[in-house]
From TrEMBL:
InterPro entries: PDCD5-like, PDCD5-like_sf
GO molecular function: DNA binding
Organism for this UniProt entry: Penicillium coprophilum
Lineage of source species: Eukaryota, Fungi, Dikarya, Ascomycota, Pezizomycotina
Matching Gene3D superfamilies: PDCD5-like
Protein's name according to its UniProt entry: Programmed cell death protein 5
Record field: compositional bias (Gly residues): 22-32
């Protein structure tokens, strides 16, 4: 019940912010910046709402700790979780163990990508060597 009520309040606030946008007060130069800031804030609230609906508290706590260490990784994980939720692939709330599995899968994908772009140098044997020049003296 509390999640549904919170979501309804957020939707009402978002609608209110969208209606205020074009008519907002202040100089014309500040109006665009304020709209962008309000849009970012509304998007952040919507993301937070979705994440609270799809994550167990332990998983949300772990994601918060990840955000403290590396914000880009936490954002990537959030985007993937939201995408899974919107496509209907999540049947229940994500537990901490499932989040760990997702982190492992992401790390494995990144490792594979790094290996694909890896450049390997092989030296020829029996070729010219600087040390050989010193021995001929």
């Amino acid at each position: 019940m509390a999640d549904a009520e919170l979501e309804e309040i957020r939707r009402a606030r978002l609608a209110q912010l969208q209606q205020q946008g074009p008519r907002g007060g202040g100089p014309a130069g500040q109006d665009g910046g304020e709209q962008a800031q309000q849009r970012k804030q509304a998007e952040a609230e919507q993301r937070a709402s979705i994440l609270t609906q799809i994550l167990h508290p332990d998983a949300a706590d772990r994601l918060g700790r990840i955000r403290l260490v590396k914000e880009s990784r936490a954002t990537d994980i959030e985007n993937r979780l939201i995408m899974l939720a919107q496509s209907g692939q999540l049947r229940s709330k994500v537990t901490e163990e499932q989040l760990k599995e997702l982190l492992g899968a992401i790390a494995e994908n990144q490792r594979k990508e790094e290996e694909e772009h890896k450049i390997v140098f092989t030296r020829r044997k029996g070729g010219w060597d600087d040390d050989d020049d010193l021995l001929d003296l």
